[in-house]
Design goal:
The protein is of the alpha+beta class. Helix content is about 30%, strand content about 25%.
């Protein structure tokens, strides 16, 4: 569970996005990552949020079609430059997981990464 400061960042993020809720973003994350339509996934806010410009959650995937059974999903207001983190992944391997851009939902850029 996020501490009080982190919870404030989450609240600020959603307060500036009318019509967008945490449950809406969790639904998007679940649709992206669950192996089958019937599979349930557990989604929780990441204990450390980067800023009020993004919302990050951890998705527990039942069958683990990623490198681990968990993934990070981040919803960002601004596009992320993936060149540097993916170059570091190419050099360092799984210690620096790859980041994948999925789509734009509710004017938010959606990124997914295996939980290292």
């Amino acid at each position: 569970m996020a501490d009080e400061f982190q919870q404030g960042l989450i609240e600020n993020f959603f307060s500036e996005l009318p019509g967008v809720s945490r449950s809406m973003l969790h639904d998007i994350a679940a649709r992206l990552l669950r192996p089958t339509e019937e599979s349930a996934v557990e989604i929780n806010p990441a204990p450390m949020q980067g800023s009020s410009m993004s919302y990050t959650c951890i998705v527990n995937i039942p069958y683990g079609h990623w490198q681990s059974n968990r993934a990070i999903v981040q919803f960002r207001r601004a596009k992320l430059n993936l060149a540097a983190p993916n170059q570091v992944h190419a050099i360092r391997g799984p210690i620096v997981p790859p980041i994948t851009f999925y789509n734009i939902h509710h004017q938010l850029f959606v990124y997914v990464s295996p939980f290292a």
